[in-house]
Amino acid sequence: MATTAREMGVTPSSVTRRLASIERRLGIRLINRTTRRMSVTQEGELYLAEGKRILDDIEDLERLVAGGSEDPRGLLRVNATFGFGRQYIGPAIQAFVEQYPDVEVQLHLSDRPVNLIDDGYDVCIRFGELPDARITARKLADNQRFLYAAPSYLKRFGIPKAPRDLQLHRCIVIRQDEAAFGTWHMHMGSSQETVKVRGIVSTNDGEVAFAWALAGLGILLRSEWHAAPSVEKGQLVQVLTDWQLPPADIYAVYPIRRHLSAKVKTFVDFLARRLAQK
């Protein structure tokens, strides 16, 4: 209740009273309450989903009647990963709200993609494959991934000459999602290699893994956007440069809607222009 109240700009007791009033009017319970937690009832789930759909339809109708001339305004909820969100999306939002002061932006950073539809986000920044058919995606930028290591590591353990050499090296593994971790797919022309790598450290956090690579703990598979500044400074070196890894291109995704709101369209256009300059 406290989180909902903050987002609405009212007190928690006010939210509680409004909810109780709706329940009395409907004659059903929307929230199950105990001393330790609250959970949404089946009727509450239906009321929430259908209510959101109706509000979205009204918003679409108002934009249609306005002839598409609406200025960007209102609350915009954005989700991104921690690393990319801190480095790129946060500064982009800062510039965006200066240019469009009628838009209020809430940025939520997470270590893995959220459910765009169920969690009520307007825009999510995602990488790579987009299997959900309920969303619209716009590619914002190419994002190649490469293998990197610190000069201190390469001086100590040598430089791999072929993908199979990675099995003899210390590799930094990032454990994310449910995919098989430590399996790197590479290709050079028609030649393809799949290598199962291991090392002395692994983590579910990309920033920690990156810090370990800088410290010389092993070879890391990382996106170009993240590693490029360190390569320019000589802190990291790209290895196996003739071999390519599957890209993880950057997308803005948002729910399929008949009429895209001005705030979402303007923000996505703004991001695309900004990332094209990087």
Walk me through what this model shows:
The protein has 278 residues and is of the alpha/beta class. The chain has 8 helices and 14 strands. It has 3 domains: 2-65, Winged helix-like DNA-binding domain superfamily/Winged helix DNA-binding domain (Arc Repressor Mutant, subunit A), CATH 1.10.10; 78-140 and 249-276, D-Maltodextrin-Binding Protein, domain 2; 145-239, 3-Layer(aba) Sandwich (D-Maltodextrin-Binding Protein, domain 2). The protein has a 5-stranded mixed sheet, covered by helices on one side. It has a 5-stranded mixed sheet with strand order 11-8-12-7-13. It has a two-stranded antiparallel ribbon with strand order 1-2. Helix 1 crosses helix 2 and helix 4 (82-99) crosses helix 8 (262-276).
Brief synopsis:
It contains 8 helices and 14 strands. The protein has 278 residues and is α/β, with parallel strands linked by helices.
Which characteristics define this entry?
D-Maltodextrin-Binding Protein, domain 2, 14 strands, 278 residues, alpha/beta, five-stranded mixed beta sheet
Give a topology summary.
Elements: H1 2-8, H2 12-26, E1 31-33, E2 38-40, H3 42-65, E3 74-81, H4 82-99, E4 103-110, E5 123-127, E6 135-141, E7 145-149, H5 151-157, E8 171-174, E9 183-188, E10 191-196, E11 202-203, H6 206-214, E12 219-223, H7 224-232, E13 237-239, E14 250-255, H8 262-276
Parallel strand pairs: 3-4, 3-5, 8-11, 8-12
Antiparallel strand pairs: 1-2, 5-14, 6-14, 7-12, 7-13, 9-10
Helix pairs in contact: 1-2, 4-8
